[in-house]
Amino acid sequence: MAAAFFALPSEVKKFVQRAQRGELEVRFRGIEEHARLVYALGHQIIYAGLGITAGAFGMVFDGRNETRQAHWAFWAAGGFALMLSWSIVTTRSRMRKRRK
Asked: Confidence class of residue 42 from pLDDT cuts 50, 70 and 90?
């Protein structure tokens, strides 16, 4: 017990020296899975933002009686909604497979 107590300061000294030299490594379990989840969430936020923007442009064009541009904007909003839905479904299925 006493040997372990006296060995502790030398271990702390080694730890601090390694940290100062930049040789310290920290490892996390399961970080890749969470990184993929954050990556998918980033895509979903982008798709949602672009879809909302395209829908807003469609409303503006429709209010100005510019039907052709409104049509294109609503089609774009629908496309982004499809991409968002696809991202949500595939992310859920990947997460279920990883948990099993």
From this structure: very high
What does the chain come to in residues?
Answer: 100
CB atoms within 10 A of CB 73: 21
The model carries a pTM of: 0.69
The confidence score (pLDDT) of residue 100 equals: 62
Per the structure, how many domains does the chain have?
Answer: 1
Q: Which residues contact 69 (CB under 8 A, 6 or more apart)?
A: 57, 61
What letter would DSSP give residue 80?
Answer: H
Q: Sign of the CA dihedral 6, 11, 14, 15? A: negative
* Residue 18 placed within a domain: no
Domain that holds residue 95: 29-99
| 12-35 confidence digits (pLDDT tens) | 888 888 888 888 777 888 788 888
Q: Quick one: tokens of 3?
A: 């040997």
